[in-house]
Design brief:
This protein is an alpha+beta fold and 405 residues long. It folds into 3 domains: 243 residues, PPM-type phosphatase domain (Phosphatase 2c, domain 1, 4-Layer Sandwich), CATH 3.60.40.10; 48 residues; 64 residues, no CATH class. 38% of the residues lie in helices and 26% in strands. β14 and β15 form a beta hairpin. The longest helix is centred in the C-terminal third of the chain and has 33 residues. The protein binds magnesium ion. Magnesium ion binds next to α5. The site of magnesium ion has 6 residues, from α5.
Length: 405
């Protein structure tokens, strides 16, 4: 029997922070979430460097734990070279799919969850002051959730020359859903709401729902969710017991093989890194482009159908949101962006790509002179996605698309 993994991922700045210090990597079979800390933008340096180092080391064939230790060394060294970044650190929670298991490395208070048979289980320990106190029996889970010192970490990556990193494995079954998230999600959002979002069959829709839930709860921190769903492959011809990545080239949940979220404020290293990430994405998309026009037409139809399904989910989420928060809904819409096409030209839209009856839930935020028709097929795919992004992220993508010549 063959297992197939599909993923979705999203990071959001939240409603109260000026930068996004979370980072994630989706590079099947590797999935990573990091939540950085440190003043003067050092947090985003730490999380981005840790995520990229881990991914690079795993790609180079290094065992997962060694790769995580290399990430620790990279952040620690960078911090020791730069006074402004002294003391910076990051959480790191990651897993590597291997055959029928997920092998994890974990340090800090980002979390890994497993949804199986309708039950949600946290499979990582929180390396925080209150997390240790809960394990010692000195605090209940409920007391920990509202404790004033709940954000103090007992362990982090990059703050010491050697880090004590947890390593464990989870044996996978068809139907399992794995979630990696930063505390900006697990803090404000209750377990039953996490569970409900994760029951969606489309992992990207699940990730988007999770972000919306955290924002609905006030979005006090940066929010990141990576969702991986493992299913039995349909009509597998061979009897081999292997876990393979989804080979469906048009699966829009699998079109961003490597994404590192960075903030536009860090103009040097992180922007270059984001460009690299996008270049990897573009190369992968290009490689997947089917040559046969008939195949492309079928692929387009599938993509459109998936998008409309996702839109229905977005509409449902926003109807629920609007009903609950009333006028505040307009504020939520104003903090979400996507890239679309206005009269043949590219534009950044504020809101979501959906309508309630005749009322669009979006408006043109900034118009480009660049036409959709002038884009490469790869770039068009990025536009067709209409992926929801925060302001910083949508401007990154618009720059990569050359929207402001
Ligand atoms: Mg956080």
């Amino acid at each position: 029997m063959t297992l197939v993994a599909r993923h979705g991922a999203l990071s959001d700045i939240g409603l109260h922070r000026s930068t996004n210090e979370d980072a994630f990597v989706v590079q099947p079979p590797l999935y990573v979430v990091c939540d950085g800390m440190g003043g003067a933008n050092a947090g985003e340096v730490a999380s981005g460097l840790a995520a990229q180092t881990l991914a690079a080391e795993v790609t180079a064939g290094r065992p997962l734990l060694e790769a995580a230790e290399a990430a620790n060394a990279a952040v620690f060294q960078r911090a020791s070279e730069n006074a402004e970044q002294m003391g910076m650190g990051t959480t790191l929670t990651a897993f590597l799919l291997d055959d029928r298991t997920a092998r994890f490395v974990h340090i800090g208070d980002s979390r890994a969850y497993l949804l199986r048979d309708g039950a949600l289980e946290q499979v990582s320990d929180d390396h925080s002051l209150v997390g240790e106190m809960v394990r010692d029996g000195r605090l209940t889970v409920e007391e920990a959730a509202v404790h004033p010192h709940r954000s103090i970490l007992s362990r982090a990556l990059g703050t010491e020359a050697r880090a004590k990193i947890d390593e464990f494995t989870v044996d996978l079954l068809p139907g399992d859903v794995l979630l990696l998230c930063s505390d900006g999600l697990s803090g404000p959002v209750a377990d039953d709401a996490l569970l409900l979002a994760l029951t969606r069959s489309d992992p990207q829709a699940a990730a988007e729902r999770l972000i919306l839930e955290a924002r609905r709860q006030g979005g006090p921190d940066n929010i990141t969710a990576v969702v991986v769903r493992v299913d039995e492959a349909v009509a597998a011809a061979d009897e081999e017991v292997t876990l393979v990545q989804d080979a469906d080239a048009d699966d829009d949940t699998a079109e961003l093989p490597f994404v590192v979220v960075v903030d536009e404020a860090d103009a040097s290293a992180s922007v270059a890194d984001a460009a690299d990430a996008l270049a990897v994405t573009a190369a992968a998309l290009h490689a997947e482009q089917p040559g046969d026009p008939a195949v492309a037409a079928v692929a387009d139809a599938t993509r459109r159908r998936r998008r409309s399904v996702r839109r229905l989910g977005v509409i449902a989420a926003f109807l629920a949101l609007l009903a609950v928060v009333g006028a505040t809904g307009a504020f939520f819409l104003s903090t979400l962006f996507f890239i679309g096409v206005d009269d043949g030209r590219l534009a950044i839209y504020s809101g979501v790509p959906a309508e309630i009856g005749p009322i669009p839930l979006h408006a043109v935020y900034r118009r480009s002179v660049v036409t959709y028709d002038s884009l490469s097929p790869t770039a068009r795919t990025l536009v067709d996605e209409q992926e929801l992004r925060d302001r910083s992220s949508v401007f990154h993508v618009s720059d990569q698309l050359g929207m402001w010549p």
